[in-house]
C-alpha cells in the first residue's frame, strides 16, 4: 500500500533568527529560536492555519531545545537555553513558572517522559539530568562530549553524545551499555519499542538498533550531510514510519526498512529540527526563522498558488559550490539527462543549463525531476586571492576552516573586514553550540589572522584554507 505523501500546509515566520528546536504540542507545536524566544502555535479547527498561543520570554541567550510534559492534565513547556538554564512555562503566562538550574553549559537536548512525569536534559557540560517535580533527582555522568540527545523507555534512559557514542542507563544512573557504531557525533534518538530504537548523527546516517545487545539491525542511507533531528510518525518494530531533517536542506520520510519514501527540499540553508504533530502533520524549524508545516490531510493542504510560490522559492535557492565538492562542469550532462528516471526518491542530479549548473531532485510520487536550486561559485578555476569567498549564500573576505575533532568535517568561520571580531566570534559560538568561555580566544584569533582589529581600510591577507585552532593557535583542535 502506497503511503500518502506530505504536502505543504503553511509557512510561518515564527522568529527573527534560526528556529533551533521544535516539539509537538496538543494540536500544534512549540518552537525555540536563537532570538531567545520560544512560542507555541495551535492549529485552527479547520483549514491550514496555526494561531500563536503564547510568546515565552526569559532566556538570556539563545534557545537550544524544547519539550512538552503533561503533568496533572496540564501541558508544561520546558525551554533549554545557551545560558545553561531550563525554563518551565504554562500556556497562560509568558514568564516562566520555574527555572531549573543544574547544568553548567548549553542545554542541548530535552525529552519529556510523560509516562513517569519526568523530564530529561542533556548539556554541553557532558552531563544528563533527570528532573521530577522541577528538581534534579539524578545526574548521569560518563560521556566525554556534549549530550545532544536524550530519550527514555520505562525505567531506562538513552543518551547520545558528541563523543560518537550512545549510552543506556538504569533509573539509578548506572550505565548498562555503550553503543559505538556511529562514526561521528550523535544528534538524535527516538524509541520505537521495548526492543528497538533509532539514532541519527553527523555521519549522515540513521541506525536502527537492538536495544538489549546493541546490534545495528539496519542503516538508513540517503542524506548527504549532518542529520540534526528525527521524529517518529508511527512506531512499530517492522513498519515504523519516521522523519529526519538535515544540513543538506531536506526533510525525508522513511518507512520500514526501505529507502526514504519522500524527500522534501526546503529553501533555508539549514534545516535544524522536525517534530511530528501527529501522524498526518509535521513541523520543521529552519535557519531562516521560519517553521514549515506539511500535512497528509487534503483539507489542510496549502492552496495551489502557495505551493507554486514555495516550489519557486526552492528552485531559486542557491547552493555554494564548496558544499558539492570537486565538480568538472564541462563533464556534466545537459537537460537530456532529465529524461532518465531517478533510481530512488530524493536522488539529485547536476545539469548544465544556460551556462549555469542546476540541481534537480527526483520525486517518485510525481515521477519527475524538479529543479531545487542553482550552484553558485566557479568550478575548476583558480581563485583570485583578493576575491571574496562565498559561504552560505554570502560573500566574505575570510572563511577559515576550523578543525574541531578528528573525523569531523571542519567548521567554517566567516569574517568580513569592517565587522566586529567579537560579534563574529559570538555568532560562531551560537551557531556551533560552543562554550561562551571561548569568546575572547576566538575574537583574538580573528584579530591575529586578519592582521587588524577589522577596519574598512585594512588590506586582507591571503584567505586561509588551512585547518586552524582559534583556542591554541595550533593546527588542530580536539575537545577535552
What is shown here, in short?
Helix content is 8%, strand content 45%. It has 3 helices and 37 strands.
Walk me through this protein's architecture.
The chain has 480 residues and is mainly β. It is 8% helix and 45% strand. It has 3 helices and 37 strands. The protein has helices spanning 304-316, 421-431, 439-450, and strands at 7-12, 19-25, 28-33, 38-43, 50-56, 63-71, 74-81, 85-89, 98-101, 107-113, 118-123, 127-132, 135-141, 147-153, 156-161, 166-170, 175-179, 186-191, 196-201, 206-210, 216-220, 227-234, 241-246, 250-255, 262-265, 271-278, 281-286, 291-295, 318-320, 348-353, 356-363, 368-376, 389-391, 394-396, 398-402, 411-415, 467-468. The strands form 10 sheets. A 4-stranded antiparallel beta sheet has the order 1-28-27-26. A 4-stranded antiparallel beta sheet has the order 2-3-4-5, with no helix packed on it. A hairpin with a 3-residue loop joins strand 23 and strand 24. Helix 2 (421-431) packs across helix 3. It is globular.
Number of helices: 3
Q: Which runs of at least 5 residues are low in confidence (pLDDT < 50)? A: 379-386, 452-480
Shape call: globular
Count of DSSP strands: 37
From the N-terminal CA to the C-terminal CA, the straight-line distance is 50 Å
- The Cα radius of gyration reads 22 Å
Main beta-sheet strand count, sense and barrel state: 4 strands, antiparallel
Strand order of the largest sheet: 1-28-27-26
Q: State the secondary-structure class.
A: mainly beta
The average pLDDT is 83
Strand content: over 45%
Can you give the helix content as a percent range?
under 10%
